[in-house]
# Entry
Amino acid sequence: MTENNPALMTSTIEALIDGKKYLTLRDIFVTMQPMDIAIVLGQLGENRLPLMFRLLPKELAAETFIEMDPDEQELLIRGFSDSELKDVVDELYVDDAVDLIEEMPANVVKRILKSADPEMRRTINELLNYPEDSAGSIMTTEYVSLRPDMTAEDAIKRIRRGAVDKETIYTCYVTDLSRKLIGYVTLKALLLAEDDTVITDIMGTDTISVTTTDDQEEVANAFSKYDLSALPVVDKENRLVGIVTVDDAIDVMEEEATEDIEKMAAITPTDKPYLRLTPFEIWKSRIPWLMLLMVSATFTGIIISSFESALAKWVALTAFIPMLMDTGGNTGSQASVSVIRALSIGDLDFSDFFRVVWKELRVAVLCAVSLAVVNFLKIQLVDVMIMGNSSITVMVNLVICITLAFTIICAKLVGCTLPLIAKRIGFDPAVMASPFITTIVDALSLLIYFQVASLLLGL
Amino acid sequence: MTENNPALMTSTIEALIDGKKYLTLRDIFVTMQPMDIAIVLGQLGENRLPLMFRLLPKELAAETFIEMDPDEQELLIRGFSDSELKDVVDELYVDDAVDLIEEMPANVVKRILKSADPEMRRTINELLNYPEDSAGSIMTTEYVSLRPDMTAEDAIKRIRRGAVDKETIYTCYVTDLSRKLIGYVTLKALLLAEDDTVITDIMGTDTISVTTTDDQEEVANAFSKYDLSALPVVDKENRLVGIVTVDDAIDVMEEEATEDIEKMAAITPTDKPYLRLTPFEIWKSRIPWLMLLMVSATFTGIIISSFESALAKWVALTAFIPMLMDTGGNTGSQASVSVIRALSIGDLDFSDFFRVVWKELRVAVLCAVSLAVVNFLKIQLVDVMIMGNSSITVMVNLVICITLAFTIICAKLVGCTLPLIAKRIGFDPAVMASPFITTIVDALSLLIYFQVASLLLGL
# Structure
């Protein structure tokens, strides 16, 4: 990829700062992407950051500001004069301003709100009232709305006039006099139309929209399903109140995928990037699940204890407990993770319950047979012949392999059904992943083990 | 979300087909999103699908076609006359045509290529030559390129003339006479400029681009990092050869996240959605890892076997093996999954190795202490007092809890370092997730267990 390497840039920039070559620095910055400038500035340290930031032209400064880490943003704001703060805040889109405010301490928030113009302050306060992770909380109010009876020429004029302050001008929304959303029109359609064409004749009416209280995950799914570049957000009366643009939807997608992955690994999701979490915050997000799963393992302990005398007689059986439990856990996790992912990208629904079970049952039988056969041969060859473990009779080997086969089938069925059931009863399916499945399958595999052993070995 | 419910639509549409209300059906279809029409048609079955598809107006038909499953696409193509096929192919964007061709059997591919016009056929063949999952394989060649000396007015005229066939007109690329990429200009900038402004004066030169052979993951990361709506793709001589649009980047992001999740659950990723995989295909994607992990469990078996006599003497120890192994596996997975995700969204790099280890070490100590204390109390209260298991002496309990603490610390360190090392030596870090970590931690926890037991109980 052709981009500047921020790590490499930093040393050049530090040398230029030391040489006080400020004009050269400014020339370099204006050729760079705001994101890359933010990375470079972030590596400069508290003393030089404000100085360098002031070198940036006004608009670039605001664009860079929004890409910085909250700590650096706070540092900058505390150093800003009121007029400098106003310059930055004026250039921010409303949704970026809201994101910023959500990260800042109260006294900084007060200064930001004071420096926003009254109209923007009102909008910010409105957006702050939407529930976290709702469509309302991620939308912007800076969209283009058109009337159905406008001509294409008028519409383009209107767009040109207002373009500077809008987050996107490429999809415009058509509303009636009571602000109800009635359609959309792309700038492409407007440019291709004759000047006197009326909007009604070229607008699309198959509008996809969300309401302010819809979850942001639905917003992200709409973008990926319908290939949108912006999505209108309406209130309960179908009045247009904002739009979500595709760049924000991409952030939501990344966030939601991260959350799913964290939940699958028994971690309570946090919003912060890994390196910015303190050890205590990481501990807090991980310990509840570890505690719960550790205490649930009491059951496996009880099962083993109750077969203590049998295990003392058939000592070889103990050695294969970890293998049986792990293989069960792995096969179960495969099924649950496949189902969880398919559910969250909308490839699957609870109505597919029996299709999924029937599919996993056949996969389970294939896995059970192949693993059991390989394991039987491996034990005869490695454990009995090579390592000379005479306590493993063919009967003991059979007990192990039959248990393995049944455990795999149970594990796959538990793994594929639990996420579907969770979804059905309104729980998050992602929680039903490896750690949870493993705990259940551990107990199941031990019960099967001792049952099979009782039958074949007469414990 | 306000959208049509495809499941609900199907029954209405079936009733209308039975009543031969074809005009009504057409009226309904033109109000719907192509994606939703594709879902509804997909549920109609082989006989009625071609009939319904022919009701769609030409452009909508092509848009719907591209959203359908490959099986349905093949069915339709086999039923098309040559001119019907040409109508659909003419409406396709080049990158969609390439996607289609990659899914079809050879004889269908031949017909598709025959019905494409020579220019498109040449482009398709070129795109098919790029390696799978490269930027070249997902780009489209239908972009707007402008010359640096054009005026804004000329540029807008050129855009209007060519707009119909371009995938996006909102970001245009500026190239010199040898097609080298020298900058970009947005339609917004063009609309805001005076008519006689020269492109050079308004174009951006901080262009982010990828080369044709770059991996699609880099493409997706560029979109999310720089909030792009399109990304230019250049050849080795920096000549512009195509663009990737944001809708395709979103598909790549979803695909890459799914792949990561599958690898973390020891599944070999496939391109197909879950419900379209046969049980045999699912088995093939899961069995190699299960086999490998099952055979690796031989080590845990050997460790247990070599302490057989000790376990026979201290029978209570066996009952806690599953709890120790699971808790170790869970804590290790948490660390590995956090690191893997941070690596894949670019929040982390190998250079952060020591920061990560130091952070996880502190988290590990917090987790170890809290879990060990809770476990000690739980065993005294539940296992000893309530369940009356007299074989668990305070010393045995100490052995269990000290083992737990050390296992947790080892597990976190193994979990956070392995993905970083994998990344460093060019392996996929996602493979170093739960199943792999679990297998390693199992053996470690047993070794610690018997070591601690030897010291405190004198095995």
Summary: Chain A touches chain B through 128 residues (CB under 8 Å).
